[in-house]
Amino acid sequence: MGKWFAGFTLLSAVVVVACSGSVADTPHGCGGGPPGVIVQVAGIDLQVRDPFGVAQAIGTVATVRRSDGTEAFAVVDDTLNIHAAFNVTGTFTVTLSRTYYRDAAVANVSVTPDGCVVHTTTVPVTLELAPGAPALRAMTVVGGDFLDHPGAQATLLAHFDADPGVSRAVTWQVSDATLASVDANGIVTAQCTKSGGTVKVTATSVVDASITSFVNLGVAPTASCP
Question: What is the per-residue pLDDT across 6-22, written as a single tens digit (0 to 9) for each?
Fold first, then answer.
């Protein structure tokens, strides 16, 4: 099931593939033994934080290359973790890029086989701010779910990339009040609607109105409304 962040879905890596025996040095290789099914396992778990210890995976771009030059798929899974090298063994170099930060590189990340899948190598990375970086750099709306009946609620959070001491206060707004409402705490409530649809919920920083983020939430139709 995907997770909703800032208007797009981040897919959790759950891909079923055929398997028998031990993993080969290819994305899905297994050999020997009776066939079965497995889930894709990330060989690399990048745990990305800013200099203040706050998770900053969302908005960080990870380039993961194996020693033979091939690039491994990487996906942001949540605010902290970027997963890569799904069922792929080898030695990797990881480069992380983020606006207002210096590029970070981690070499010689080893992923070893574990039967039909791989062991996960956890790589903590602390990003370094670039000179002149502003105190408030970005904000992302985290959370949300499909609102399947009138009164259904989803709690949204504003996740900041900012220096300590910068206010995390935001204002919330919905694009269509006939579909849903949102309160000052980011709690979205579905309205009774015969048509259903998608509502855009936007958070705006109180400190800097140019810093905004949004999430789209689906609202289910109802046969009848009062």
Answer: 333 343 333 333 333 33
Rounded CA separation 15/156 (Å): 28
Q: Residue with structure tokens 């999430």?
A: 215
Distance separating alpha carbons of residues 150 and 80, to the nearest angstrom: 33
Contacts of 109-116 spanning 24+ positions with Cβ under 8 A: 109/44, 111/43, 111/44, 111/85, 113/22, 113/23, 113/89, 114/23, 114/41, 115/21, 115/22, 115/23, 116/19, 116/20, 116/21, 116/22, 116/23, 116/30, 116/36, 116/38, 116/87
- What is the chain's percent helix, strand, coil content, to nearest 5? 0, 55, 45
In the numeric block, which tokens belong to residue 192?
């009774």
Give the separation between CA 137 and CA 149, rounded to whole angstroms: 36
Euclidean distance between CA atoms 41 and 46, whole angstroms: 14
How many other CB atoms are there within 10 angstroms of residue 112's CB atom? Answer: 12
pTM: 0.81
The residue among 74, 66, 57 whose CA lies nearest residue 110 is 66
Summarised one tens digit per residue, pLDDT across range 56-111 is 999 999 999 999 999 999 999 999 999 999 999 999 999 999 999 999 999 999 99
151-182 pLDDT per residue, tens: 999 999 999 999 999 999 999 999 999 999 99
| Amino acid at residue number 49 | R
Distance CA 30, CA 37 (A): 11
